[in-house]
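During the second year of the project, the team shifted from modelling isolated chains to modelling whole assemblies. The rationale, set out in the original proposal, was that interfaces cannot be judged from single-chain predictions alone. As a representative example for this report, we include one of the complexes processed in the last quarter. Its constituent sequences, exactly as entered into the pipeline, are reproduced here:
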Amino acid sequence: MCLISQYNQIANTLKERIKNGDYVAGQHLPSQKELADEFHTSRVTIQKALDELSNANLILRRQGSGTTVAPNSRSTLDILSSQYEGTTKLFEGRGKVTTKVLKFEIRLPSVHEQKRLSISDSTPVYDILRLRNIDNEPYELDHSIMPLSVIQNLTEKIASGSIYTFIESTLGLKIGSSIRKITADVPRKNDQDYLKCTHNEPILQVSQTVHLSDGRPFEYSQTRHRYDKGGVIVVNNTLSSNGLQI
Amino acid sequence: MCLISQYNQIANTLKERIKNGDYVAGQHLPSQKELADEFHTSRVTIQKALDELSNANLILRRQGSGTTVAPNSRSTLDILSSQYEGTTKLFEGRGKVTTKVLKFEIRLPSVHEQKRLSISDSTPVYDILRLRNIDNEPYELDHSIMPLSVIQNLTEKIASGSIYTFIESTLGLKIGSSIRKITADVPRKNDQDYLKCTHNEPILQVSQTVHLSDGRPFEYSQTRHRYDKGGVIVVNNTLSSNGLQI
DNA sequence: GAGTGGTCTAGACCACGCG
DNA sequence: GCGTGGTCTAGACCACTCG
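Output from the structure prediction step:
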């Protein structure tokens, strides 16, 4: 969240106004011309700011009739504020999150992992299996593969906290896009052992590849959730495309 | 997909070039100045075109060093081409899609439905239950609620085909954003009956509210998939946020 | 220092919705 | 017809990367 650019600051100001109820759902925003005057800037800059709100589904812009606040703007803001930053941060405040590291190894990657992470067969990877608990109740089983060519100096101690915080704060890397596949599955032995689920309690699996902002893939992971303690919320607009596939 | 604007056309041309391999993964694109010269336009217009490709995770732009084709651009293009357009269109080519309408009613909405669809208790809704098959194998069970105040003249015959095509082509409405929650669940009686799954075969459920481009919600639906025949792929960039929640 | 992308301006014309 | 948002221009300055 850089606050450097003018349009970014304006966008944040406008988001604040929606959050505070200065602009309520259905209400017309001031016209682009009026906003340009208010912020002492040009219309193009206002438009870039409105692009941000529009991409977040916070406003509706209609040629001829103007810009209004989206009907579901408040709930969208709630979802926005819980933006994905790794599991640890996400669940702060919902209970005490603890992580048990079940495996922490360095090895060479399989062919499948090489493909997913765009690495050669001689690039070692971390192989980390972790169990996350909320208030001492098992919640998800996470299996992550990360190449040492991108992520370095990872330790078991760090893995027992937030790897994402380590990557962003300590390594100073920026996290970019991800591709996820979400499926349901029958529980395996590991699930039954660690997530304490019975043989007919389903698992929600999220399999993902995550990239840095420079495009390098840095994590390929499979996270398995208890069906009664997990769900994924997806906001879809004309920019991001989500496909159902067999 | 309007092709009216110049930057849109340029974006499509550039996408074609990536698709055709004229620009390959990792390769530098011509600079913004060069592209502006080639397309006889200004740099700002090129930038708007690049915004589109950037949002789709097809390119990486770095200040100082230039714009390159994303490493996974080809697979991203595959996902893009299967952009969500309702189930019927999505599965064309993967087998013969047939739809059996199990229920087609008009009734008043429940309190929960009123909230989800932003309608009053006196606005009637369609209540439609459908079973989709691919090559005569049951695939998903779809329960849709749509307000008559938005969608009109829907018939059982239309419901046995593609409701989305009807909305866009016949009614001339434009589909906008959606919010989905994806969970795993144990099979209920309906699932066992229609999807032919046993009592310990999990269900993947997608619960969603879909809006028109003017912001009006027009569909609240719950779709239940056989776990071995369904999955949701989500592309996530800095614009769209997806949160995991209990 | 040269070249790249990021931001910003002031002004123009167009497409659309509404009274 | 008027006001709205959408597109586009020509040019400017800045921030960044790299040789």
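The radius of gyration of chain A is 21 Å. Residues 164 and 170 of chain A are 10 Å apart (CA to CA).
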